[in-house]
Amino acid sequence: MYTYYISVGSNIGDKRGYINSAFESLQEYETVSEVISSSLIETEPWGYTDQASFINGIWSCKSTLAPLQMLGLLQSLEQRAGRERLIHWGPRTLDLDIILAFDEDKTIISVCNKRLTIPHPYFWDRIFVLEPLSELLPTFTYKGTTIGERLAHLSLL
Prior knowledge:
Blueprint: E1 2-10, H1 15-27, E2 32-37, E3 41-43, E4 54-63, H2 67-80, E5 95-102, E6 111-112, E7 117-118, H3 127-136, E8 141-142, E9 145-146, H4 147-156
Antiparallel strand pairs: 1-4, 1-5, 2-4, 3-4, 6-7, 8-9
């Protein structure tokens, strides 16, 4: 059994509708349980900034799916929402990224291949990921720094 933390975002059309629909769909899979959502927040775009604001949040869930299988499931939810990958970090109906994954012993899983990198390579640099993640993992520490310390540091930049 794995525990996943998934970054959720949308900035096209019915943003909350896309997120809520995918959240409900994820709960319907027998291989996924205990799906929890952080609060959703409105944020400015990161990377490619010439686009509308985003609604972002974090979901956690438990699953028997291995990381690449979970990626496939999340990508199928994106496709159902009409996700198109036209511009890197560009506008999207739905964006679902595995940020962190833990095994049954609560050890962070590392994956690095052409399709998937866990931990997500930019998660520790993005307030729009860390703020909602701190709701679900308030005592999380990464590379010797607490999530609260990291958020304080990033807010000064």
